[in-house]
Amino acid sequence: MGLFKFLKEKFKKKEKEEVSESSESIKSEETKKEEASLEKYNKGLEKSRKNFSNKLEELTKRYQEVNEEYFSELEEILIEADCGVSFTLNILEDLLKYSKEKKITSPKEINELLVDRMFLNYIKEGDDIKNEISFDVTPQVLIMVGVNGVGKTTTIAKLAKHYIDEHKKVLLVAADTFRAGAKEQLVVWADRLGIDIVTGEENEDPASVTYKGVSKGQKDNADLIIVDTAGRLQNKKNLMEELKKIVKVIEKLINRSPECFLVIDATTGQNGVLQAAAFKDLINITGIVITKMDGTSKGGIILAIREELGIPVRFIGLGEKFDDLEEFDLDKYLYGLCSGLIKDE
Ligand SMILES: Nc1nc2c(ncn2[C@@H]2O[C@H](COP(=O)(O)OP(=O)(O)O)[C@@H](O)[C@H]2O)c(=O)[nH]1
Ligand SMILES: [Mg+2]
């Protein structure tokens, strides 16, 4: 069975179950959580879905059979959804070849194939992606990097909440000593969450604040230590060196590499892909968090990043509220983006 049909059965079934459940109380906690998560994806991807699925649907209606023009219009839709040039061209080449081989001419079938290919393109052979942070060895240290304003600090608060809910002991470290007010912003979050935070003086060496923070986390038996960093512009060499120093300090203390999440604002489009490339050259990025997905109609950026950089998206920000951060789930993402196409006949 193709992915398109799989998604249709998986999520349509869920939606039907929702309707037929007469009593909320008989649903298990797990089911409720899954439904809420799917709802967040659907809501957060609403603008992208309109831009992508609706256009594709409209295109499908205009053609009886696919031809060169059809594929060129499809290309435009994919580029406009910010799927990136490389991803778009690869997918189109694939679709063209396959449709010729199998003599597929129906636009509907091509759409189904497209969703399948989007899925297969994301799943790279040999990598077993676990998006949740592992707590096999504690304390686990997570550094958050990314340029100013992308949502690092907000995401730290959301991630902390996510793991506190799973009964993990979380410690925050405010190693952004560069920007005025950055420390205070994180202190407010720590207070609200009722967790400890280690801060430094203004302009104190971020590596020294990190040293204090991670040492405290080790002493206090924290499960997770999250380090907030300044908005390091990739063209500012000295700031990048600072970041490397932070990583070194952590590696020395915990004897292994930390997790390092690069935060990218989905509304910045291809610029976000360029940022990721610049950061990837300098430090070992173990995952990407895409924020503000709810604020863009160009949800294809996740596919572009995966295609061009190979780094997996680990979490996705779907709104401004505390709970609007979800573990990245390829099925839910593709369903959220394409559900306009996955209708019952
Ligand atoms: N709509 C929306 N806004 C977000 C999301 N994540 C962060 N923001 C907003 O982005 C702005 C900048 O966030 P901040 O965490 O201060 O960015 P930082 O400079 O990278 O630390 C804030 O107004 C956040 O509320 C998201 O997923 N959706
Ligand atoms: Mg910040």
Say what the CATH topology of the largest domain is. Answer: Rossmann fold
Q: Rg from C-alpha positions? A: 22 Å
The biggest beta sheet is recorded as:
8 strands, mixed
Count of alpha and pi helical runs: 13
CATH superfamily of the largest domain: P-loop containing nucleotide triphosphate hydrolases
Shape, please? globular
Average predicted local confidence, pLDDT: 89
Q: Into how many domains do the coordinates divide?
A: 2
Description of the structure:
This protein is of the alpha/beta class. The chain has 2 domains: 3-21 and 29-125, SRP54, nucleotide-binding domain (Four Helix Bundle (Hemerythrin (Met), subunit A)), CATH 1.20.120; 140-331, Rossmann fold. Helix content is 54%, strand content 11%. The chain has helices spanning 3-20, 29-44, 46-62, 68-80, 85-101, 107-122, 152-164, 182-193, 206-219, 237-254, 270-282, 301-309, 330-338; strands at residues 140-145, 170-174, 197-199, 224-228, 259-265, 287-291, 313-317, 325-327. The chain has an 8-stranded mixed sheet with strand order 3-2-4-1-5-6-7-8, sandwiched between helices. Helix 3 (46-62) runs antiparallel to helix 4 (68-80), helix 4 runs antiparallel to helix 5 (85-101) and helix 6 packs antiparallel against helix 13. It is globular, with a radius of gyration of 22 Å. The two termini are 17 Å apart. The model has no long low-confidence stretch (mean pLDDT 89). Bound molecules: guanosine-5'-diphosphate and magnesium ion. Guanosine-5'-diphosphate (GDP) binds at residues 146, 148-154, 231, 291-292, 294-295, 317-320, 324.
